Amino acid sequence: xxxxxxxxxxxxxxxALRLLEALRDRGIESVLIMxxxxxxxxxxxxxxxxxxxxxxxxxEAYPNDFRCPYVSGSSRFDGAIVIPCSMKTLSExxxxxxxxxxxRIADVALKERRPLVLVPRETPLSAIHLENMLRASRAGAIxxxxxxxxxxxxxxxxxxxxxxxxxxxxxxxxENDLYRRWAGWATSEDS
Length: 191
Prior knowledge:
Helices cover 42% and strands 16% of the residues. It is α/β, with parallel strands linked by helices.
């Protein structure tokens, strides 16, 4: 299995880093494409070594332009994830506008009926954001906002990040145990 991982200019680059770790741990090939703003935010959020670490975890890495071989429908990949997905990238994808490799690969995934998971990280959401999400969903994208659950009583940020990344893997049919799954209401003895 080969998955494209696009990192755009929204907060939440820790999700991309953890996804790349999870894919590598499962022996799944990953192709990393970072936008310029995605790289800048990764440096800010994860430190100077963040983007370098992401590249090391991926099987391949390309600039966010049309030199990337995966911008063609004839290229072989099994799905794409944009994590985090900026509202600019969401807008491009929902409108079929391909100005860079990430939005073009998303377009290829949709037209070739390959899984496309978009992980928007924005709050609050405007009507424009919501309409773009609905348009992308109707075209076949899976909209998976970075909204962790709290039923598992997370102890730290890693557990919150693992929940979101685990759900991304779930919708792609990739087995994982990154988070504790819902098992029903706890009894008073469990509290």
